[in-house]
Specification:
The protein is α+β, with helices and mostly antiparallel strands. It has a 5-stranded mixed beta sheet. The chain has a two-stranded parallel ribbon with strand order 1-13. Strands 2-3 form a two-stranded antiparallel ribbon. The longest helix is centred in the first third of the chain and has 25 residues. It is globular, with a radius of gyration of 26 Å. The two termini are 50 Å apart. The N terminus is likely disordered. The protein binds zinc ion. Zinc ion binds next to helix 19.
Length: 580
């Protein structure tokens, strides 16, 4: 028998140390298993390593004009479930964020010029804050109107070309020097006022060097070989402006939980020619369980294709089942992607040669979608959805509808029935709106079939009411957006078929579930026939007739604006925000 009063404390400590060593040995051997960051203390580590930025959109100082502009945005903190990360994954984050910050600095130069000089010159704190959100003095969600006195119109070529350069001057010079039209060059004037191309890795040598070093440092902690390879090749790409090898490696990596999209990527900032890529970065954490569900849905596409409510010839193509579609939490946005309204889905790479060799990857940013749901869709429902149906507006249904939309792009047909053309080629400028409309309606069709077949649990009423509320959100994008037009078409088509009714006493809309199924099938057939027939005239007429905002709907949209329901979001973000 042991007498507790006589235990030797040194011996106890030795035993305890031994027991602890045995217990923790497996963890130390498999440093990359998920969940050990909790024991390591990822949150504490991150909050000690970094800071956060929080745009002040509820500012009480500053002009009324400036505060009015800010109030179109609402703020949301970017974080994720840190207990999912390994210690090494956690240790990568400060390096990835530091690399992303360099893209922030490059984008300021591409979009405006000297950031600090601009911000220091603004006395009104509200307008200074708005300039940060816009990366310059032009209102990105307000048609790029200048919001500071003495600032002219935004140059179409942003700061990527000399502001005094004309199109004609550029085109003449580009004949002799094709580098001027390069994707990865800045155009400046040399000492003799002639146009000159400077490669990004020279124009932004400091930033690129630092970002490259940080990616290299992050690679040291990468346990996933695919991720390590990508980070090392991307570090090289930033120094050479040759992104192709790293884009290939990016498509090859499949099992990584940590994801970073970084570099000079999209060309929207160049509204003059669309030649120049702008700097941006996303740091993302993959949602492994959603990603698994999505690949299962993709495998069901052939079965769903067979069940489409159209004659056989309109569903004769076999949908591909190898989708690279994943869900993520975004934990950092930098540069181009953080300017103005926020991206909630990414489809990359843009390099056609990589697309042909490896396809593309679609990335859905779940927490950013949650922000738009909580801060925009729920308030919209509070005004426009019948009170007893509001409980069916749920994030799961919203996210599900969005994901099914993405998978549903794979259904239907890509070529016209007579084989003369692709659907896209035949329908020209109407192709995108119709394709987006197809994906929306077939997304709803998919979820209804999957619930019917017992492949998916859920209450279809949630998907339907959330779908209806989503139409009001997306109609606000306006007729200049393919998504906006697709939603107007659906609103009018559904209205005609009685899929919803409006109660004039309360100014709310109510879904009629049975009629919505009928309308869904009818709209599916309408769109797939137009696509299969490559019927350009028919689509033009359909869009003309249905892509409108009727007076009553406009009055209801005005009520949303009057109620101050925000148009978009800004992020409270940084290592400390992730750890908070
Ligand atoms: Zn789409």
């Amino acid at each position: 028998m042991l007498d507790s009063t006589r235990i030797n404390p040194t011996i106890v400590m030795k035993y305890l140390a031994l027991i602890l060593a045995v217990l923790t040995a497996p963890l130390m051997l498999t440093g990359c298993t998920s969940g050990d960051a909790d024991a390591f203390g990822c949150a504490t580590f991150l909050s000690e390593e970094g800071t956060m930025t929080s745009p002040d959109v509820d500012m009480t100082e500053g002009s009324e004009f400036g505060r009015g502009l800010l109030s179109q945005f609402t703020s949301f903190r970017l974080t994720t479930d840190l207990s999912m990360l390994s210690e090494n994954e956690c240790r990568m984050l400060p390096h990835l964020f530091a690399a992303a910050d360099q893209m922030e600095s490059i984008f300021w130069k591409q979009a405006w010029g000297n950031r600090d000089e601009l911000l220091d010159s603004i006395d009104d704190p509200a307008l200074r804050e708005y300039a940060k959100i816009n990366y310059g003095p032009w209102d990105r969600i307000g048609g790029n109107a200048p919001f500071l006195d003495g600032i002219g119109d935004k140059p179409a070529g942003s700061n990527l070309y000399p502001p005094d350069m004309s199109k004609a001057e550029f085109e003449a010079a580009a004949v002799a020097d094709p580098e001027l039209a390069g994707l990865y060059t800045m155009v400046v004037r040399d000492a003799d006022e002639r146009l000159k191309a400077i490669p990004y890795h020279e124009a932004f040598a400091d930033e690129m060097q630092r970002a490259s070093d940080e990616l290299g440092a992050a690679a040291e902690y990468a346990d996933d070989p695919g991720l390590k390879e990508y980070l090392m090749l991307r570090a090289e790409a930033l120094m050479t402006s040759d992104y192709q090898p790293s884009d290939m490696a990016w498509m090859d990596m499949k099992d990584n939980r940590i994801e970073i999209v970084i570099g000079t990527i999209e060309t929207y900032e160049d509204a003059l020619f669309g030649y120049k890529a702008a700097a941006e970065a996303f740091v993302l954490i993959k949602d492994m369980s959603w990603s698994e569900r999505l690949s299962r849905y993709a495998s069901l596409l052939p079965m769903l294709q067979e069940g489409l409510p159209v004659p056989p010839e309109y569903k004769q193509e076999t949908p591909g089942t190898d989708s690279d579609l994943n869900a993520y939490d975004a934990i950092y946005y930098a540069g181009d992607t953080n300017a103005g309204s926020k991206t909630i889905a990414i489809n990359l790479p843009n390099d056609e040669q990589v697309q042909l060799a490896k396809g593309t990857r679609r990335l859905q940013l779940k927490n950013s979608m949650q922000a738009k749901f909580d801060k925009i869709l729920v308030p919209i429902s509070g005004l426009l959805i019948a009170e007893d149906q509001r409980e069916y507006v749920t994030f799961d249904a919203f996210f599900g509808n969005t994901m099914f939309h993405e998978v549903a792009h794979g259904l239907g047909i890509k070529n016209t029935l007579d084989g003369s053309s692709t659907v896209r080629g035949a329908l020209k400028e109407h192709a995108s709106a119709l394709e987006e409309g197809k994906a929306d309606i077939l997304g709803l069709y998919m979820v209804s079939k999957l619930i019917e077949e017992g492949e998916e649990e859920g209450d279809l009423r949630e998907n339907m009411v959330t779908f209806l509320a989503g139409i009001f959100r997306s109609v606000r994008f306006g007729a200049s957006s393919a998504h906006g037009r697709a939603n107007m078409i659906r609103f009018n088509f559904f209205s005609e078929m009685g899929a919803f009714t409006r109660d004039d006493a309360t100014g709310t809309y109510r879904a009629d579930y049975d009629k919505m199924i009928l309308a869904m099938n009818a709209l599916t057939e309408k769109i797939l026939r137009l696509q299969g027939d490559g019927d350009y005239e028919g689509v033009a007429q359909f869009v003309d007739e249905y892509a409108r905002v009727p007076q009553q709907l406009q009055a209801d949209l005005d009520r949303l604006a009057d109620a101050g329901i925000p148009v978009d979001i800004v992020f409270e973000q940084g290592l400390a925000a992730v750890a908070k």
